[in-house]
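Please, structure for the following, as C-alpha cells.
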Amino acid sequence: MSIRKVMGLATVISTVVGVIFTIGAGFFPEYLMRFFIDSPATIQIGSDYLRIVSLSYIITAISFILNIGFRNTENSGVPLKASIIVFFTNAILNYIFMFGKLGFPAMGVKGAALGTLIARIIEIMMLLYSAYASRGPLAASFSDLFGWEKEFLSKYMKTASPVVINEGFWSLGQVLYAVAYAKIGEQATATVQIVSTIQNIFFVIVRGLANSSTVMIGNKIGEGDEDGAYEYAIKFLYMSTIVGLLLGLLMIFSAEFTLKIFRGLDADLYKSAKSMLVVIGSVLFIKTFNSTAIVGVFRGGGDTTFSMLLEMGSVWLVGVPLAFLGAMVFKLPVYLVVALVCMEDVTKAIVAIPRIISKKWIQNVT
C-alpha cells in the first residue's frame, strides 16, 4: 500500500473524529464535564478550558498522522524535534498567559488552553514544512493522498479498522475509569490528575520504544524476514520490561520529590497521590511490556484484530467492572481502585505472551 494514500485516508478519518470532539467540547462542555464531576465551580473552569482547547483537536489529529508518517519512513528525528520544541513552547506560553507575564493579562485556565492551542499550531506548521521542504515520501500532492482505488480501500479497512475500533473503545474505557474515580470524590479526581501528569512524563520513553518497535518489526516483515521480525520483537519486549522496571523504581523512590512540584497539597491528597504512584510504579514494567506487545509487536506484525480483541477484552471485561466495583460497591480509596484497574494490564500480559511465542502475529499485509 502507498504510504501517501494511507496517510490521506488516515488524515480524513482522524479529521472526522477531531471534528466530532471539537463540536462536543466546544459547544457542550458543561454536559461533558458533568460526567466526571458534580462541583459547579469545577465544571465552569473545565468548560472554559475546553471551549478554547477544542479548537486544537483537528490540528492535533492531523499532526498525529504526520508523526506516524515520519516514523514509518524512518525519519523519527523530525517528530522528536517538533515534540521537544512544542513541549517547551507550551510550558512557556502557559506560564505567560496563565499568570499575566510580558504585558499579557492573567487568564488563568483560559491561558493554559490558549497556550496549548498555539503550541499545536506551531507543531503542525513544523511538521508540514519538514514534510514538503525535504521533498521526501510525505511530500504528497492532492491526488497522491486521495486517489484511492477499491482494492486499496478494502485492504486498508481490513488492516486499519481493528485499530480504529480498538482506539475508540480504549478511549471510551478511559472515560469510564475517570467516571469511576469521580464517584469516589473530588479529591480522588485531583489525585488522578496529579499522578497522570507525572505518569505521562515517564511514559514518553515507553511510547518511544513501542513506536520504534512498530517500524522496525514492520520493516522486517515487509522484507520477508520473519525470523528477524521475531528476534526484534523479543529484544524490544525484553528491553521494554527492563526499562519499565527501572522507571517503576524511579517513580516509587522519587514520589516525594515529584509531588513537591505541586504546591499547596493537603496531607490527605499528598498521601493519596504518593500511594497511587507506588501502585503504578509497581506494575509499570507490565505496562511497558504491554505497550510494546500491542503497539509494537501485534500492530507492527499486522495482527491488528488480535490486538483489538486483547485490548478491548481486558479493558471492558476486567478493568471497567473492577473500577466500578472498587469505587461504588467496596468504597475503596482511589489508589486501591487504581490497583484493581491494573489487573487489566496483568490480563493483557498473560494473554499476549502465548500469542507472541506462537508467531501467529507475523502477518505480511503489504
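Residues 326 and 337 are 5 Å apart (CA to CA). The chain has a mean pLDDT of 90.
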